[in-house]
Amino acid sequence: MNRISSQSAARIGLVRPAPRPGTDGRRRPGPPALVAVAHGSRDPRALSTVHALLDRVRALRPELPVHLGHIELNEPLLTDTLARLDATDTADAVLVPLLLSRGYHVKRDIPETAAAARVRTRVAAPLGPHPLLVDALHARLTEAGWRAPTSDAERRTSAVVLAAAGSRDPEAAVDTGRTARLLSARLGVPVVPAYATTSAPTVPLAVEALTARGRHRVAVASYFTAPGRFATESAAAAPGPAAAPLGPHEAMARLVLHRYDQATAAPARTTPHLASA
Asked: Is 194 strand, coil or helix?
């Protein structure tokens, strides 16, 4: 499997090499480059969706150099993107994971790759949890046909399943649970986190449990950045509206820039700044 280069964990914490000067002996001026780090997918829609999201980021901040690197499955890989930045004498880069919670990729893969790069790097927090994600989730549910309950009876029979990828890292479930609570407060109905892999409950089991409790009006919110197998399988389990992945929603583009700004303002480091707002 084509994947981020597995760098030795021992390299974390080593003194970072000084950035190379440009051909005139001076460091290239301007803000640090933003490197969006996507997971990668065999679904061709994923790559086009990520490109559309980054186009929105560029439109919001035209002066900012924006690049893309993947953890696996798609090109360019993050290692290759960082190598190209080094070759063009880029001194600084901020890596923004296009991931929605903490987990192995955020805690290990990305920081290790950043630590091994010649470019001076900072690693931003993952996108979630954050209220801007709730804006995007609400919008995608509305587009799919969700409407707010108009009576107490409808409210008692309504619910949403927040379908996420899942992780063995317990902090990932904590992050997803927080997003579920934020979305529940926005919608005024219960929102239950469920997972496409690894974690429990699965999306079909969450739907079944809600139905058994009299929640017959159930929608599925897609807590995925881009289309892929997990998002498709989760949508197929929805008995009612099934929202599209978050994709290039404007709130997502604003959140990418927010995470970039947070990391830029913090002291340089290669471990993620796990801010939540």
From this structure: strand
pLDDT in tens, 159-208: 999 999 999 999 999 999 999 999 999 999 999 999 999 889 999 999 99
Q: The sheet that has 120-123: what strands, in order across it? A: 66-70, 33-38, 92-97, 120-123
Cβ atoms of residues 122 and 264 within 8 Å: yes
Q: Which residue has the tokens 């699965």?
A: 202
Distance of CA 222 to the CA centre of its chain: 12
Inter-residue contact 109 to 71 (CB < 8 Å): yes
196-211 burial string, b = 16+ CB within 10 Å, else e? beebeebbbebbeebe
Place of tokens 């955020």: 106
β-strand 191-195 against 120-123: which pairing, if any?
unpaired
Query: What would the two tokens of residue 50 be?
Result: 């990520």
47-90 pLDDT, tens digit per residue, is: 999 999 999 999 999 999 999 999 999 999 999 999 999 999 88
